[in-house]
């Protein structure tokens, strides 16, 4: 029988290192204290199961690799799910219902929040976008989670512009977005805003992106891939609507043969004679929509952006 020396000092201090087939016997500390018991540590490394050189390799490393591969697989599935979620169009982003493909942008841009298209907006200056205030508040939009796509009629395409500042009107449903830089070739996109009203029965148009049918339930309709346009007719203006804001600042427009605005068209400009005269705020998805007149926004727009009416 081979003699093995035991440690009388520190519990893990090795006093003997024999040939490969031998091992060191020491004492393992236990809690609570009790009589010492011997434990074996292999020459190949503390903590690994002891084996003789003639025994087959251990399978511990294989089990470790299997666990790691399983974790990598789970993480891969989670990342794929996050990527799909980040590119999904928001379910409540409706657009022109029953409209037609727009031939021109007429100043319209896409307002995206958290990877989803939220609303429309109008580029009234090289780096200024006019939109609806509830698009900011309802979506929790900030300069960190929002952006503007400009210069294309196709959804999710065009120049992606970073937002530097968000300014909300104190009493009306309108907001200004200040972009870090001018939109490239903005002269081809920008439209001015007017003062006054288009007048009773005036024919106006409104454009937006998203579903082309009323929303029955989330996910039942696919979004349109191009900017849609609706032809409307003014039937009321300069009246009070608390949903839009204080004062006689509202304008109402009704179906005029080609489409009506939906919820996701909020922020779009009411267009006539190469200018916009209102910011679209709400509609019933059936026959009419309402907005806030830009004549009521003029002093605030000039104060914030320095852009005068055209």
Protein topology:
Elements: E1 24-27, E2 38-41, H1 60-86, E3 100-101, E4 108-113, E5 116-125, E6 128-131, H2 133-139, E7 146-150, E8 159-168, E9 175-179, E10 192-193, E11 203-208, E12 228-241, E13 245-258, E14 269-272, E15 275-283, E16 288-293, H3 294-305
Parallel strand pairs: 10-15
Antiparallel strand pairs: 1-2, 3-12, 4-5, 4-7, 5-6, 6-9, 7-8, 8-9, 11-12, 12-13, 13-16, 14-15, 15-16
Overview of the molecule:
- This protein has three helices and 16 strands.
- The N and C termini lie far apart (106 Å).
- The protein is α+β, with helices and mostly antiparallel strands and 310 residues long.
- Strand 14 and strand 15 (275-283) form a beta hairpin.
- The protein is elongated, with a radius of gyration of 34 Å.
- Mean pLDDT is 75; it is low at 1-31, 34-57, 84-98 and 216-222.
- The chain has two domains: 10-55, no CATH class; 100-213 and 222-305, Thrombin, subunit H (Beta Barrel).
The assigned CATH architecture of the largest domain is Beta Barrel
Judging from the principal axes of the Cα atoms, what is the shape?
elongated
Binned, the helix content reads: 10-25%
Please work out how many helical segments DSSP would assign: 3
Low-confidence stretches: 1-31, 34-57, 84-98, 216-222
The biggest beta sheet is recorded as: 8 strands, mixed
Structural domain tally: 2
What structural category do the secondary elements indicate?
Answer: alpha+beta
């Amino acid at each position: 029988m081979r003699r093995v020396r035991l440690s009388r000092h520190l519990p893990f201090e090795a006093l003997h290192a024999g040939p490969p087939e031998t091992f060191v016997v020491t004492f393992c500390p236990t809690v609570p204290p009790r009589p010492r018991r011997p434990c074996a540590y292999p020459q190949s490394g503390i903590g690994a199961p002891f084996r003789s050189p003639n025994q087959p390799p251990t399978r511990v490393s294989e089990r470790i690799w299997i666990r790691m591969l399983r974790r990598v697989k789970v993480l891969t599935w989670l990342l794929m799910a996050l990527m799909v979620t980040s590119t999904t169009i928001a379910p409540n982003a409706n657009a022109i219902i029953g409209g037609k493909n727009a031939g021109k942008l007429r100043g319209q841009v896409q307002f995206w929040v958290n990877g989803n298209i939220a609303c429309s907006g109008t580029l009234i200056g090289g780096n200024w976008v006019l939109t609806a205030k509830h698009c900011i508040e309802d979506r929790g939009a900030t300069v960190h989670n929002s952006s503007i796509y400009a210069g294309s009629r196709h959804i999710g395409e065009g120049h992606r512009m970073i937002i530097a500042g968000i300014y909300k009107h104190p009493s009306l449903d309108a907001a200004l977005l200040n972009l870090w830089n001018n939109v490239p070739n903005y002269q081809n996109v920008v439209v001015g805003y007017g003062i006054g009203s288009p007048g009773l029965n005036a024919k106006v148009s409104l454009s937006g992106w998203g579903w082309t049918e009323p929303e029955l339930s989330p996910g039942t309709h696919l979004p349109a891939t191009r900017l849609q346009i609706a032809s409307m007719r003014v039937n009321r203006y300069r009246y009070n609507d608390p949903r839009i804001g204080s004062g006689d600042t509202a304008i109402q427009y009704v179906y005029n043969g080609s489409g009506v605005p939906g919820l996701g068209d909020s922020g779009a400009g009411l267009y006539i004679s190469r200018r916009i005269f209102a910011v679209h705020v709400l509609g019933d998805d059936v026959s009419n929509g309402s907005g806030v007149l830009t004549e009521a926004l003029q002093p605030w727009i000039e104060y914030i952006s320095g852009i005068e009416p055209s």
